[in-house]
Amino acid sequence: MKLHEYQAKEIFKKGGIPVPENSIAETPKEVQIATQKISKSVALKSQILVGGRGKAGGIKFADNPSMAYQIAEALLGTHIHGEKVEKILVEEKLDIQSEFYISVAVDRSVKKPLIMTSSDGGVNIETVAMETPEKIYKFHVEPLEEFLPYQAREIARKMAVPNNLLTKFGRIIWNLYQIFMKCDAQIAEINPLVLTNEGLIAADAKLNLDEDALYRHPDLNLPKKPKDEFAYVKLDGDIAVIGNGAGLTLSGMDLLKLYGGKPATFLDIGGGASQKNISRALNLVISNVDVKVVFLNVLGGITRADDVAKGVVKVLEESKRQIPIIIRLTGTNEEEGQRILTNAGVSFEITMEAAARKAVEICNALK
């Protein structure tokens, strides 16, 4: 379960990690009041559960409450990468001197927690790993042994952190590991951890929890997972794959690879997806600028073909970005669903093979 930044920062703060002065807001007026309370220039950060919000215009800066109000008025209700902006985190704008990266995650290859740090923060860690791997330090924690403060300080030392920051930096690494373990997290990340005149501060926060362990954490007061939430993984291809079921989605990805295509997403909308969920899924993948074609692979069981068709037509009518959507649609209410698509001028295929092949052909023609 992914937490919003403001939720992660609340947990980090309770766990002893410094965070900026902040407040969560849901209306322009609340943003204005929060800015007045902070009494400094502020960062207005859209609270969505997908990455890349900064480049997409989801983070703005304001020098005064009036400016903050206007920006919030423009941001709230908009969609960024398919996610609607319903909350804004208002926090003090930091005077950053340098940036670092710290994360704790499960390394399944060795079945141990992995602490990964870098003196280059504020950018994708994948980019650092590719271009300057020597700037990344990795430390595996023995899961049956206690992770001690001196080990955290040693990690900071290996990063060449200045001597005057070693103790505080080590304490943040140690605290982040404690949060990771206590919350049954899959990943706990600070990117960037910044150095300011006030000291080290977590400018951003990421915390993904193991959904199977949520029952152990009633103290976190987390909202229940929406019934229509789906599994989404962004990949490095150019054909978005959406299916109603993990197996069906993976099969569609395999066929794309067989015909020479490259998946851009794994998106499982689940077995009982609604028209609203279909629209949300399509908007999410369409917002990915790398996606050239969408391959929607639906075998109607609990999911009704007519609901799928209505969702597709709605997106095509409302979306500002028009890209080809290749649909495999069969199963429950398929005749009605196919009629809706035909009347809207949208073609479809009956077999997964035909739809996958067509998606690859159209994508290749667009290159």
CATH H-level superfamily of the largest domain: Succinyl-CoA synthetase domains
Number of strands: 17
Structural classification:
alpha+beta
- Tell me about the biggest sheet? 6 strands, antiparallel
Report the radius of gyration as a whole number of Å: 23 Å
Kindly describe this structure.
With 367 residues, the chain is an alpha+beta fold. The protein has 3 domains: 21-92, Dna Ligase, domain 1, CATH 3.30.1490.20; 98-220, D-amino Acid Aminotransferase, Chain A, domain 1, CATH 3.30.470; 231-366, Rossmann fold, CATH 3.40.50. The protein is 35% helix and 26% strand. It has 11 helices and 17 strands. Strands 7, 8, 9, 10, 11 and 12 form a 6-stranded antiparallel sheet that branches. It has a 5-stranded mixed sheet with strand order 13-15-14-16-17, with helices on both faces. Strand 4 and strand 5 form a beta hairpin. The longest helix is centred in the middle third of the chain and has 17 residues, at 166-182. It is globular and about 70 Å long. The chain starts with a helix and ends with a helix. The mean pLDDT is 90.
Summarize the structure.
The protein has 367 residues and is of the alpha+beta class. The protein has helices spanning 5-14, 28-38, 65-75, 125-131, 149-158, 166-182, 246-258, 275-286, 305-318, 334-343, 352-366; strands at residues 22-25, 42-46, 59-62, 79-80, 83-84, 88-92, 98-107, 112-118, 136-140, 185-196, 199-202, 206-209, 231-234, 239-243, 263-268, 293-300, 325-331.
